[in-house]
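Hey, resending since the last one bounced:
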Amino acid sequence: MSKLKYSEDGRLLFTKEMKKEYTILIPMMLPIHLQFMKNILRKHGYKAELLDTTHPRIIEEGLQYVHNDTCYPALLVIGQLLDAVKRGKYDINKTALIITQTGGGCRASNYIYLLRKALKQNSLEHVPVISFNLNGMEKNPGFKLTLNMLIEFVYAVLYGDILMHLSNQVRPYEINPGDTDRLTDNWIKKISRELKGRSLLNKNRFKKNMWQIASEFADIPVRREEKVKVGIVGEIYMKYSPLGNNNLEAFLQQEDVEIEIPGLMDFVIYTCDNTATDTKLYGMKKGVSIITRIVKNYLANMKNILIEAVKSQPCFRAPSSYDHVKSLVKGYIGTGAKMGEGWLLTAEMLDLITSGVENIICTQPFGCLPNHISGKGMIRKIKENHPNANIVAIDYDPGATRINQENRIKLMLSVARMNLLNRTANSKVL
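The structure tokens again:
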């Protein structure tokens, strides 16, 4: 067993010896994306496991250690991790936990401290917690993000985005049920195999894969009919996590609608872009800004490969470029509003509406101030400029009943179906 070592401030370190022995548990958010990221960690010598638990005990576990007013995503993430280390599946003397840390003003930056407090309360303070961040916070000798790993994560995000994007556009229309999921699974397996070698870093292969993915999804037999289209936006965890949003995607699939969810890459670019904004507004170091601009441009160019691949198939609706999405918020909210999802949340709603997805569910943790300002707070202004917009804000917290959430969504869908019928009738008259 690895000897426990501590930093000068008393923080338990994840050591090089632990890398060989310890299993790192990853909380769930984006199923496809995180599968790739788990495999990247394994490729680089880490024993990583992705948690897929969704049972009610997770909420009960979280409520014991996270105040209900703190942050619902924190409650769920910490509850899922604690449930995992307490239920006996993993050796608690050879288990580590990993959690993202943004370092910004959002309460998400405090998740890691709440997690360590919860571990201590359970006499599990010997379980190390790894901070996954790009800000140089909480360095550990046994966990380092190399340049190759970061580039691989970029590819993983883009692969996850295109598979999520196209599967949602095809699944509601497929003639043979299961075709979309089978193709998605096949590509997850293929890309995961590529993760084991250096071919993942081959840009030409990446471009070829992107175009092939688009082509194969376009070949799936579908019914050419118009369905209600629903976009999902909101706080990042609520937007993506089935645990957080009560399996919202599955519910909408049962309602026979087409789902559109903005990809993760825009959020990654947004975090880089924020540094340039800080330099302009608050006088941060220009050297840091120059570096982040270079990174931002690289990420935007990589996303353009995805966009062009989707555009190669006329049957698909392609994502917008990051710069276009950003341009949409002019006159709505300043780009200095960047706590949590900040202006990006407003921009995603506008991008969906202008691309033909007028029905939107804005998911938000109850009491999340940044989300309520840039999400719910923008709805009235958006509707003034886009009268056809049909937006509902749904709060998620331990006290909110699933049936109430779904009933409000059903009401929004009834309006959406009526609008679709009227639009179809008017087009026939013309």
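Residues 6 and 13 are 5 Å apart (CA to CA).

Sorry for the duplicate.
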